[in-house]
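Private note to self, pasted from the team thread so I don't lose it. Backbone tokens:
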């Protein structure tokens, strides 16, 4: 019986892999769930990939426990950002930041402003409406608004005042 090998790689290759591997983990609790995210990034694959400008390759493993049920998701990535510019912790922060943008922008457009339910489908109408929605969100954020839905309800009865602030109407 041949000797049992430990791990995927022989000792020398395992050492190279370990030196190139960088890991970061975050733990979050809130909204009735517990989340653990682990990012593993390596530079060991850079010379083997036929990918222009590769800086690091990695994966993010997410584990979410909600109401006693656990869900897991693994996402892989390739980035042109070198390890000297961003370690695993920085990359994990950027990945989390992407979702805050998703939640702040796309969620507001889809849910609060009902973009997905819009029946405007012909010509340049969809682009015009998207531009108006984006302008409204930008204007409200510029005034310091964090809750777009609440601000829309508050301003719904003050259309003339809002148009005056935008320079569309004179008071």
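Design output:
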């Amino acid at each position: 019986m041949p000797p049992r090998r430990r791990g995927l790689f022989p000792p020398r290759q395992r050492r190279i892999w370990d030196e190139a591997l960088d890991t970061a983990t975050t733990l979050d609790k809130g909204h009735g769930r517990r989340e653990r995210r682990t990012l593993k990034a390596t530079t060991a694959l850079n010379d083997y990939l036929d990918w222009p400008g590769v800086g690091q390759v990695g994966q993010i493993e997410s584990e979410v426990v909600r109401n006693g049920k656990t869900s897991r998701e693994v996402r892989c990535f390739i980035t042109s950002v070198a390890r000297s510019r961003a370690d695993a912790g920085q990359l994990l922060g950027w990945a989390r930041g992407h979702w805050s943008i998703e939640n702040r922008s796309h969620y507001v457009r889809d849910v609060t402003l009902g973009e997905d339910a819009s029946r405007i489908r012909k010509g340049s109408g969809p682009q015009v409406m998207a531009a108006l929605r984006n302008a409204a969100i930008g204007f409200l954020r510029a005034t310091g608004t964090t809750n777009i839905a609440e601000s829309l309800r508050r301003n719904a009865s003050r259309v003339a005042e809002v148009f005056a602030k935008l320079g569309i109407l004179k008071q």
